[in-house]
Amino acid sequence: MTRPDRDVMLCRDCCCGDPGKHPTTDHRAQQDALLACAGTTRAGERVRVRVVDCLGQCDRSNVVLVRDFTRGRRPVDTWLGDVHDEDLTWRVAGWAERGGELPEDLAAHRFAPFVPGRG
């Protein structure tokens, strides 16, 4: 696949996807829901979904990073944290498919990532 229009990364490692930390979250269903939005959208845009190792934002698990390549040379990263319930997961997947500005109902989950060494 050439560079996608949007690249969705679902963190799965030490904290994200951990049933011990988030026992009420159906982690498999969450992963399946996000993987379902991969491919070519009706608008002809390409969405890639990847399950990745730790994104280093464990205090906000479960974390989803959406990189939008449609807005210029550099991607626009949107970090979403505390993604636990099924409805929220489907809203994230729907937005990843549609693209555009982050919907207001997802804004409360947006966060600036912690980068060690930056203060």
Features of this protein?
Glutaredoxin; single chain; 6 strands; 18% helix; 6-stranded mixed beta sheet; Thioredoxin-like_sf; 2 helices; globular; alpha+beta; (2Fe-2S) ferredoxin domain-containing protein; 23% strand; 119 residues
State the assembly state of the protein chains. single chain
CATH architecture descriptor text: 3-Layer(aba) Sandwich
**What is the count of helical runs?**
2
| Cα-based radius of gyration, to the nearest Å | 14 Å
Organism: Nocardioides aquaticus
Protein name: (2Fe-2S) ferredoxin domain-containing protein
InterPro entries: Thioredoxin-like_sf (IPR036249)
What does this structure look like?
The chain has a single domain (6-111), classed as 3-Layer(aba) Sandwich (Glutaredoxin), CATH 3.40.30.10. It contains two helices and six strands; from the N terminus they run βαββββαβ. It is α+β, with helices and mostly antiparallel strands and 119 residues long. 18% of the residues lie in helices and 23% in strands. The chain has helices at 27-35, 86-98, and strands at residues 6-11, 39-40, 46-52, 64-68, 76-80, 110-111. The chain is globular, with a radius of gyration of 14 Å. InterPro entries: Thioredoxin-like_sf (IPR036249).
Can you describe this structure in just a few lines?
This protein has 119 residues and is α+β, with helices and mostly antiparallel strands. The chain is built from 2 helices and 6 strands; from the N terminus they run E-H-E-E-E-E-H-E. Helix 1 (27-35) packs parallel to helix 2 (86-98).
